[in-house]
C-alpha cells in the first residue's frame, strides 16, 4: 500500500539580512558605474563641493574585484573615501562598556527599584518610566536591552488594573521615541555625523526640543489609554485575553526584583556621568559663543602644571573639541572605573567587556559594509553625477519641502535597511551634500534620518525588539498596529512640521 502523498511545504519569503541587502546594493552600484556618466565637482580647500562646478570626466567602471574590496576600503579607507574604522572601534568599545554595566545588573535592578518605589501609584510610573527609557534611546539607542524589562513590568501593570499592552507601550514607545529624537546615539547620530564630518554635538539642541515634544505626545497617548482601561477594562485592546493574562502573569514575580546595592547605585551614577561627559565633550561650545572657552582654558592650565600636566598627558583635547577618538577613550576609561567601583574581578571584567564587544561586532562590521557603497560610487566617479542630478532637481525647491521629502524617503529605506548605522553609512554621503544644495544644514538632514528610523522602529515586523516584546506579552502584531496607528500619524505630522520649521531657521 502506497503512503499518501504529502503536499510540499510552501516556502515563506524571508527578508534577507542587512549584510545581503547591502552587498546587493554594492553590486547594483558597481553595475551602474558602467551606465551612469562619470563626473566631478570642484572643491574648496576644506574639501567641500562648490555648487555649479560639475564637469564630465573619464569613466572608471567598477568590477568584481572592486565589489569585494569595497567593504575592506569601507573600513580602512582609500584615496577617495574615509574609512569607518573610528566609528566601528567606538561601537565595539561602547559595546564593551555596556557589557560591563550589564554584568552588574545595575540598569535592570534600577528599573525594578523604581517600580517598587511607586507600588500603589503605578499610574505615576508611566511618565517616569517612559522618560527613563527615552533617555536610554536618545543616548545609546536602547533597543534589545529593553527585553529584560517586559516580564518585570507586565505583571505590575495587569495587577493594578491596566493591561499587558500598557506595559509594552511604556517600554517600546518610550525607548523608540528616544531613538526617533536621538541626541548623541552613537549608532545613529554618531555614524551619520562621522559620514558628513560633523560633530555629534552639532544640532543637539533642536534634537532635544524634538525629544521633549514627541515624548510628551507619547506619554499623553499611553497615559490616556491606561486611564481608559483603568476605568473600564472592556476598553482594553486585549480585553479578550484578559483572564488568560491574569492567569499567565503573576504580580508576585516582580515583587522581589530590583533590590539595589550600594555598588550598583555607584555604577548607575557612573553610567549617567559617562553620557553626560560625552555630551559636554561633543558640543562645540566656542562655535555657539566665542566667549565660551572655559574648557580650552582649563585644559591648557592643567597641561601647564608641572608633573600633574605630564601625568595627565600633554595631548589632552579640550571638551567641546572631542570626536570619536576622545569619546572612545572615555568609554574605555569609564569601563575600568566601573570595574573598580563595583569591585569586579579582573577576569569577570575582561569577559564582560569582550562579551559586550562581541554583541556589537555585527553593528561595527555592517558600518564598514555599508560604507562600501560609497567606496564604489566614489571610485566609479558617479557620486558627483548623482549629486549633480540632485542639484538640478532641487532647483526652486524650498528648504522645508526638501527636508520633509528626505524624512519620507528614509521611512521605506528604514524598512529596507533596518540597521540604523548601516542606513546612515549607505546613504548619508549622498543625502547630506544634496541638503547643502537645497540650503539645509547637514545636522538637520541627520535629524530627519533619525526621526524616520525611530518612527519605523515602533511598528516594523522585521525588528526583533518589536516582535520579542509582543511575544512576551502574547499580543498579536495586528492588535499593536491598530492601537498605535493614531500615535504614528501624530508623530509623523509633528515631526514633519518640526523639520520644516527647523530647515528654514
From TrEMBL:
It is a multi-pass membrane protein. Pfam families: DcuC. It comes from the Bacteria. Keywords: Cell membrane, Membrane, Transmembrane, Transmembrane helix. The chain crosses the membrane at residues 21-41, 83-101, 125-143, 149-172, 179-198, 204-223, 267-288, 322-342, 349-377, 397-417, 455-475, 487-504. InterPro entries: C4_dicarb_anaerob_car-like (IPR018385), DASS-Related_Transporters (IPR051679). It is found in: Cell membrane. The keyword Transmembrane helix applies. PANTHER family: ARGININE REPRESSOR (PTHR43652:SF6), BASIC AMINO ACID ANTIPORTER YFCC-RELATED (PTHR43652). This is YfcC family protein. It comes from Secundilactobacillus angelensis.
Amino acid at each position: 500500500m502506497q503512503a499518501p502523498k504529502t503536499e510540499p511545504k510552501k516556502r515563506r519569503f524571508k527578508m534577507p539580512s542587512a549584510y545581503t541587502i547591502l552587498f546587493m546594493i554594492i553590486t547594483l552600484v558597481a553595475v551602474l558605474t558602467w551606465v551612469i556618466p562619470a563626473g566631478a565637482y570642484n572643491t574648496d580647500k576644506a574639501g567641500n563641493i562648490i555648487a555649479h562646478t560639475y564637469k564630465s570626466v573619464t569613466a572608471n567602471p567598477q568590477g568584481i574585484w572592486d565589489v569585494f574590496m569595497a567593504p575592506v576600503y569601507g573600513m580602512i579607507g582609500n584615496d577617495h573615501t574615509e574609512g569607518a574604522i573610528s566609528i566601528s572601534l567606538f561601537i565595539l568599545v561602547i559595546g564593551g562598556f555596556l557589557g560591563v554595566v550589564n554584568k552588574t545588573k545595575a540598569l535592570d535592578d534600577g528599573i525594578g527599584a523604581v517600580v517598587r518605589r511607586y507600588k500603589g501609584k503605578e499610574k505615576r510610573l508611566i511618565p517616569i518610566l517612559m522618560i527613563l527609557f527615552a533617555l536610554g534611546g536618545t543616548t545609546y539607542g536602547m533597543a534589545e536591552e529593553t527585553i529584560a524589562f517586559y516580564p518585570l513590568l507586565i505583571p505590575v501593570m495587569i495587577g493594578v488594573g491596566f493591561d499587558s499592552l500598557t506595559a509594552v507601550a511604556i517600554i517600546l514607545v518610550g525607548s523608540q521615541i528616544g531613538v526617533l529624537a536621538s541626541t548623541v546615539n552613537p549608532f545613529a547620530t554618531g555614524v551619520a555625523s562621522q559620514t558628513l564630518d560633523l560633530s555629534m554635538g552639532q544640532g543637539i539642541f533642536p534634537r532635544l526640543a524634538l525629544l521633549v515634544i514627541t515624548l510628551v505626545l507619547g506619554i499623553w497617548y499611553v497615559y490616556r489609554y491606561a486611564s481608559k482601561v483603568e476605568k473600564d477594562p472592556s476598553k482594553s485592546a486585549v480585553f479578550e485575553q484578559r483572564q488568560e493574562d491574569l492567569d499567565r502573569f503573576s504580580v508576585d514575580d516582580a515583587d522581589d526584583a530590583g533590590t539595589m546595592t550600594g555598588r550598583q547605585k555607584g555604577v548607575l551614577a557612573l553610567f549617567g556621568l559617562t553620557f553626560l561627559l560625552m555630551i559636554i565633550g561633543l558640543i562645540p561650545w566656542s562655535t555657539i559663543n566665542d566667549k565660551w572657552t572655559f574648557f580650552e582654558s582649563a585644559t591648557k592650565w592643567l597641561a601647564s602644571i608641572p608633573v600633574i600636566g605630564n601625568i595627565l598627558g600633554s595631548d589632552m583635547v579640550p571638551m567641546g573639541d572631542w570626536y570619536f577618538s576622545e569619546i572612545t577613550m572615555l568609554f574605555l576609561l569609564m569601563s575600568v572605573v566601573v570595574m573598580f567601583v563595583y569591585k569586579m574581578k579582573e577576569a569577570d571584567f575582561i569577559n564582560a567587556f569582550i562579551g559586550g564587544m562581541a554583541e556589537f561586532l555585527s553593528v561595527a562590521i555592517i558600518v564598514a559594509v555599508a560604507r562600501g557603497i560609497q567606496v564604489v560610487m566614489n571610485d566609479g566617479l558617479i557620486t558627483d553625477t548623482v549629486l549633480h542630478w540632485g542639484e538640478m532637481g532641487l532647483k526652486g525647491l524650498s528648504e522645508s519641502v526638501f527636508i520633509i521629502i528626505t524624512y519620507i524617503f528614509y521611512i521605506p529605506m528604514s524598512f529596507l535597511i533596518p540597521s540604523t548605522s548601516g542606513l546612515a553609512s549607505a546613504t548619508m554621503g549622498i543625502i547630506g551634500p544634496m541638503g547643502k544644495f537645497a540650503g539645509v544644514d547637514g545636522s538637520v538632514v541627520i535629524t530627519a534620518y533619525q526621526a524616520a528610523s525611530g518612527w519605523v522602529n515602533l511598528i516594523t515586523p522585521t525588528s526583533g525588539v518589536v516582535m520579542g516584546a509582543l511575544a512576551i506579552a502574547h499580543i498579536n502584531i495586528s492588535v499593536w498596529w491598530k492601537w498605535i496607528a493614531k500615535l504614528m500619524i501624530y508623530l509623523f505630522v509633528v515631526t514633519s512640521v518640526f523639520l520644516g520649521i527647523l530647515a528654514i531657521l
